[in-house]
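Hi support team,

I'm filing this because I wasn't sure whether my run with flavin mononucleotide finished correctly. The job status page said complete, but I'd like someone to confirm that the output block is well-formed before I use it downstream. Pasting the exact inputs I used:
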Amino acid sequence: MTMKKINKYFLILIIVMLGELLFGEYFFEDRETVLAGNIEEEINLSPVKTVGKLSVEEAISKRRSIRGYKNGPLSLGEVSQLLWSAQGITANRRLRTVPSAGALYPLEIYLAAGKVKDLKSGIYRYNPERHSLIKVVDGDKRFDLFSCSFSQSSVKNAPISVVICAQYERTTGKYGERGKRYVHMEAGHVGQNIYLQAKSLNLATVVIGAFSDEDVKKILNAKEAPLYIIPIGRGK
Ligand SMILES: Cc1cc2nc3c(=O)[nH]c(=O)nc-3n(C[C@H](O)[C@H](O)[C@H](O)COP(=O)(O)O)c2cc1C
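And here is everything the job wrote out:
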């Protein structure tokens, strides 16, 4: 091999490495998510509404933590709207409903579906790029989640729980130790969006921070760290 050729390959290698460093979070991660969608069962969610009956001021003033829910199911449309409020894409094919430090989006949203019309019970991962659900685990896991959240009945009784998980490295890779606080702040943004979206849909919810991290991670079959369990249903 001539020196000229070696230089050319070296240059290509440098460009690829730079690309990974600068855009890896967006490009490679997105590809991974999309590919996962091909391998496993994927459910496309209905388009979301960006106009509602409740003003943002009314939703804020009426927001409350509610821990008791009626027995009935949620619709897939309601689930679609709730997941979109948590992490949906709203601009430039990348920017989302919540702010994110450096637009690195370290949060992954899981759905523990117990009673949802037209959706099999199971654990799903929300795919913001395709506004779809990717099946991760079969079966109703609400009781397992309840058991590892110190038997908080809201988790057992709600038809669904949304679980906010974090892959810290996406943010600490750029911001170091300080990135951890950014990730937690971002989970707060998601939690509040879900509270307000739930209120607007006339649903009830509460954010749950007390649970065993390791057990929840196992139930979700997640590689990310769980931060919040958010049961949602029709308030009693
Ligand atoms: C970080 C955090 C963790 C929480 N963890 C729990 C929890 O484990 N269980 C629960 O029932 N409520 C939990 N809550 C909800 C609070 O109890 C609730 O927000 C508080 O009582 C005020 O009521 P409000 O939300 O209706 O204004 C948590 C709230 C926050 C912000």
